[in-house]
Specification:
With about 190 residues, this protein is mainly beta. The protein has a single domain (about 5-190), classed as Fumarylacetoacetate hydrolase, domain 2, CATH 3.90.850. The chain contains three helices and 14 strands. The chain is globular.
């Protein structure tokens, strides 16, 4: 699985793209570790687009033919490392920093889904995919214009602002209507 991030909240002339290594995906209910992070990681709720079959130069009109479905994704970021490095690659690439799941929904309107992040039972982020600058079909088309997408690839669609740092002992939950909840506890590396 390769993962591609597209920030759909901003309206650039072209999408901002970032590739994250394939192994960074982590499952629902698995522990998220604060590895080498001084200030705590910050969660980022996202709708994830899961690709069904090889896709290159898809048009927006045909983009859904290439989509298997949608799931929850928690785009964790080590903000201290991001600020130090002045880019996101290392800050998002820790082994446990991209939980995804709990299932792939094939019956969802990806352009009208409520998305929430809860930390310790407290609502921290709320949004709706209606607020995307680019609809999901356009995102798939634009990413496939740059790179070939393969079955199982995941496109992360971006997250609204908010939340704050996570600390050991925190429980993070990303909820998307029509998909369910992605739940992960936060632990220190040495507790693993």
């Amino acid at each position: 699985m390769a993962r591609y991030d597209v920030d759909v909240r901003i309206q650039p002339r072209q999408h901002v793209r970032r590739t994250v290594r394939a192994r960074s995906g982590h499952a629902a209910y698995e522990r998220v570790m604060r590895e080498h992070v001084e200030s705590g990681g910050t969660p980022g709720m996202e709708l994830a687009i899961v690709i069904r079959k090889r896709c290159r130069h898809a048009t927006p009109e045909r983009a859904r033919e290439y989509v298997l479905g949608y799931t929850c994704l928690n785009d964790l970021t080590a903000r201290d490392i991001e600020q130090h490095d002045h880019q996101k690659t290392r800050a998002k690439a820790f082994d446990t920093f991209c939980p995804i799941g709990p299932c792939i929904s094939t019956d969802l309107d990806p352009n009208a889904a409520e998305v929430e992040t809860w930390v310790n039972g407290e609502l921290r982020q709320v949004g709706n995919t209606k607020g995307f600058v680019f609809p999901v079909e356009d995102v798939v088309a634009r990413v496939s214009a740059v790179m070939t997408l393969l079955a199982g690839d995941v496109i992360a669609t971006g997250t609204p602002a908010g939340v704050g740092p996570l600390l050991p002992g925190d429980r993070v939950e990303v909820r998307i209507d029509g998909i369910g909840s992605l739940k992960n506890p936060v632990i220190k590396l040495q507790e693993a």
